[in-house]
Structure formats: structure tokens, C-alpha cells
Amino acid sequence: MLSFLRRLTHSKVGVVVTLIALVLIALAFAAGGITNFGGGGPAASGDTIATVGKTTISANDLKTTVQDEYNAYRQQNPQLTMAEYVQGGGFDASVERLINALAFQKYAQSQGMAVSKKAIDGQIASSPALQGPNGKFDPALYQQLLQQQRLTDAAVRTQIEQSLYAQMLTSPTAGANQVPPKLAKPYASLLLEKRTGSIGFVPTSQMPAGPAPTDKELATWYQHHIDRYTVPERRVIRYAIVTPDAVKAEAAPTDAEIAQAYKAQAARFAPVEKRTVKQVVIADQAAADALAKKVKAGTSLDAAAKAAGLEASTASDVTKADFAKQTSADLANAAFAAKQGDVIGPIKTGFGYSVARVEKITQDPGKTLAQAHDVLAKEITQQKTNDLLGQIHDKIDDALTSGATFDEVVADQKLNAQQTGPVTQQGIDPTDPASRPDPRLTQIVQSGFDAQQGDTPELVQVGQDGAFAVAALGNVIAAAPQPLDKIKDRVAKDFTTDRADQAAHKIATEIVAKVNKGTPIAQAFTEAKLPANQAIQPVHATRAQLAANPQGAPPPLALMFSTPAKQAKLLEAPNNAGWLIVYTDTIDRGDASDKPDVVNATRRDLGQFVGREYAEEFAAAVRKAVGVTRNEAAIAKVRQQLLGAAGDQP
Q1: CA 300 to chain centre
Q2: Model's pTM, two decimal places?
């Protein structure tokens, strides 16, 4: 809510507020990948985008950071484009994280703080993405991930060190959630504010079409808007996919293998007794004795537990071994020796004294070989498939490591070589309006855009069934504008739309000027020869209503709440549809003095964000203390490079 209120009071829409790098580790090792946040060392190459203390952050650091964070988001939303990510605030967030992470490190070290190697080792070893089948840290997996992400161990350790410094410095402030009533009252009153007004619309579609543009006009327009018609870099990626179908015949289990698996897992399919046991654990033995006596006298275990301020828990359909793991061997022995309905205990366990009751006894007859056949066949097939795919994967990996080419690997393994068409990093061909990204090729396309000409082909995981692909960069088609003669109709349409939009803007500007001089808005529309009864809509709302909208405040209403009474402002409608005229008529200021419930609710809402506000202020103070200089020109240049590579279409 605080961020929303700030947007309203400052009349800003779409401002992205970025916090410090508190989640570096979570992002760095999320979903089996390592995200490179860069920074913290001397500039590698290219322009310097910022200097923190005496350390520089290079443009390459920033580009790598944005690209890696964008890739991480695309794992959750494959349709996300780089243009959407940059324009949605991802780029600005990366800049802030890089600078803040390095600033916190510098400040912490200046205050005598230190992060030990053991602490960094612990962060790496505890990452779920780096744990092997036994649940322990797997050094080989760590090295594999470093190679895949083209990182070094030193770079990852630097990133973790920075994040730990940030956590140590900001945890006390980020965790704050107390807001005094006097601070909350103005915000609560703000939410009660009511406004009425009108929203008028000058549509582009009602503007005269005008004469057809001349060739000279089109050529001039085309040159002035060349970026709009520039096709970004496209690449052709060669690939060959290895799927489970490739080893289907070899993976089929024999009857002998199924019989052997049945014998090896005899305990799994043997008859077994299972029980459902309800228990209450009490720390004090005397209290446990009293509760057991009460239950044995006829009181239900649930009722007795509730009377003692406790709650019974139930272990359903467990074996004796499983129940022993959950509780203790003594309790499991007693529970499985008792009859259904018997009350057991108190028996001492590692958690206290347990009073239990046997609720149900079930005899599982187990499974014969014939009954277990299908289950085992499926499991063996999956295991053999994984093993066979792994063997092929290792053979290809060894061949690539030894210098084999894509064609040699395909021929040796008898694979089906394919290639994409010329696509952008989003997997589409911008010259084809019908082009859509193929979700199956997302990782393959990404691999092609990560590579440079002459790089060794890469092995890329595709899908969730163990399939993988060997991918290699083919042709690279440099970014270039589409020839005017091939897109003349499109340029003419854009030219005509822009001319109509300018005409609509001129009329809308004149209406706003008249309204702000005292002319009623309906009269101003009539004088502009626009149908006021159709174009003007009355509106009324409170700030609380705007705050309750999960999609955020509609821009026209947000603008009305930042416009003085009896004044109008102009707002461009999306997609060159026209121009909105937002007029504020009346303002009824809210007062929460006699509404303690509203003040308290506002305190709770603000409490969710006040810690972040403190952390932002602290981050600003840290940056000031260590000295931060931003190179806005270099930052803007990187932003434009990323947008150009994204192929943002008009």
C-alpha cells in the first residue's frame, strides 16, 4: 500500500522501486541454475556504468546480469520478451542490485565486518540445486553448473559474499514492522479522500484520413523511425534431440529382470501390518499419567488432550518401522503389540511422554510377482531409459570435449539433425507475422544465443523426460532495417495513424487549455465539434477503491487524483487510439481522526512495507558513505542495446 500511496501522491505511474540484494543467494541457485550478478571487481571491458568507492562495474557486468536474470524469469514465463522485461523494470532493478551489492560489501568491510570462507562454503553446500541423490553436496554437480553458466568458483563466491554482507547489514531494518498511529493517520485520511470528475476522449479514428502520403513523405517517415522497422539479430541454430524413444527398445525389461527386482525388493511386496495410532505428547510425566488415566477411564483422547490445552496427532496407516522413526522404538513396540482400541502409555520418547491409542489395524497382504509385474516393469523401464540416455549423453560429451564437430557427433550417434529458421532470442521470426515461439526449443534457442561463432556445440536439457539435445550455432544474421519497398503498406499505415494521432493531440490540447481557463468541459468538446454526450464520462472514486484494485489504479483515475480541482490534464490512450482528457471537479479531503479502525488497518498495511522503506533509506545512506558515481550515458547505452537485441516490435 505504501508504494501505491507514494505513486498517487507523486503522480507517477509505473515507477519500479528496487530493493537491495537481499535475495541474491535464492536467485543465484534457483531452479538448478546459477545467476551471475557480477560487480565487485575491476571493470572487464566496455564502458563503466558505475563506480563504487574505487571499484568499477562494467557494461559487460550489467549486460550479463540482466541477461541471466531475464533467463531465470523465463524459466517461469517462457513467453516473456527481453523488451517486456527491460521496460517492466527488470533492467533498472539489475542496475540497483549491482551497485547496492558492491556498496554494502565496501561499507561492511570499512566497519570491520567479514564473511568467512566457511560461511560461503555453507551457502554453496546447502543449496538444494547442488545436492546429489544422497541429499549431500555434490562437487561434480557444482562444477557442471559452473561450466553450464560459464562462471568461475571465485565469481560465485564473490556474489555470495556480497549477499551475506547485505543480509547482515539490512536484516535489522528490513524486519521492522511497527508503525505509530500518528504516522499512519495521514495515510488513513488519504485513503478516505473522495473525488469526482470527468474523462473525455478524443479518438484518433475520428480524425480526417487526409491525402495519401507521397513517396517522399514515406521515405522521410521511414528514416526518422528506422528503429521501428529494424529486424533484430537473428540466428539459425542447428540441433539434434535425443529422446527416450531412441532407447525404447533397449529399455524394455525382460521377465528375468522383473523377477530379479521382485526378489531384491522382497520386503517391499511382503505382507505387512499397518496401524493408525493417535497420540498426545506431554512434557511432564505426572501430567501424562493423569491424562492416560482419564483416557483409560473412558474420555476420548481428543477431549482429554483439549482439556489439557493440547492437541492429539494421528499417524495413519504406518508400518512399525516407520512409526518407530517418527516416535521411538519403545512406543512402536507397544503400539504394535496392543489390540485395536487399546490405550498405551505414558511412554517416554525423544519429545516427552506419549499417551497413544490404536485406532485401526490393517493387514496388507502384499503383492505376488504377477501383481507387482506392471509396477516393476515401469520402474525398470524408467531406470534403464535414464541409464541409456546417460550413456549417450556421456559419449557425446566426451566427443565434444575431444573436439568433435556437430556433424561428426550426429553421424556417429545416427541422430536426426535439424535447424531452426532465422529466429530472435525469443524464438520468433519478426519478418513473419504468424511466427510463434516453440516451447520445446526454448533452451536450444537460448544456447544458440549464448554461443559465439566457432564455439563447441553444447548439450542442452529439453523437456522433463530426460530428453536432451546437442545444439550448435549456425548462421548469424545481423540486425538490419527491412527495405522500404517490402513494407511500404505498413509504413503508409503507420504514417497515416501518426498524422491522425497528431491531429487528435492538437484538438485535445486545445480542449484542455479551454477547460483550464474556465470553459465547461462539455462546452469545450462541443466547440471542438466532438460529441460531448458520447466522449465524456463522469467518474467518482476514493483512494481506497484505487488501492484495492489488484491490477493497480487505472492511469486515468490515478491522474485525476493528482490533478487540482477544476483543472484538466492530458493522457495518451494506448496503441495510438487517441487522447484522454482527465478533469477533476470536486475534492473531498478525508479525515480518519474519528476512525480508529481505519487507522489501525492502515498501520497493519504499512507495517508490511516499512521495513523495506527503512532498508531503502539505509541503502541510500550506504551508497553516500562509500561514494557511488553512475554513468547514466553508459547505462542508457546498455539499455538500448538490450532493447535492440530484443526485437521489440511496434
Answers
A1: 48
A2: 0.52
The CATH number of domain 272-364, selected from 3.30.43.10, 1.10.3720.10, 3.10.50.40, 3.40.50.2300: 3.10.50.40
Backbone angles phi, psi at 319, to 5 degrees: -80, 170
Q: Helix %, strand %, coil % for the chain, to 5?
A: 55, 20, 30
CATH topology of domain 14-177+608-646: Triger factor/SurA peptide-binding fold (1.10.4030)
- In whole angstroms, what is the distance from residue 102 CA to residue 2 CA? 27
Bridge partners (DSSP) listed for residue 262:
none
The C-alpha cell at 342 is 487399546
CA proximity to 342, closest of 301, 282, 283? 301
Measured between its terminal Cα atoms, the distance across the chain in Å is 33
User: Which residue do the cell numbers 568507492 mark?
Assistant: 53
Q: Distance between CA 52 and CA 40 in Å, rounded?
A: 9
* The three cell numbers locating residue 377: 516393469
E strand or H helix that includes residue 194 = strand 194-203
Task: Give 239-302 as a DSSP string.
Answer: EEEE-GGGGHHHHPPPHHHHHHHHHHTHHHHS-EEEEEEEEEEES-HHHHHHHHHHHHTT--HH
Q: Mean pLDDT per segment of 10 residues, for the chain of length 650 residues?
A: 34 26 34 37 60 90 85 73 84 90 91 89 82 75 76 83 85 76 85 92 88 93 91 92 90 92 88 91 89 90 87 89 88 92 89 90 90 91 89 92 93 93 89 85 89 90 86 92 92 93 94 95 89 78 82 88 94 91 93 86 80 85 93 90 58
- CB contact set of 148 (below 8 Å; sequence gap of 6+): 33
Spell 326-339 as b/e; 16+ CB within 10 A means b.
ebbeebbebbbebe
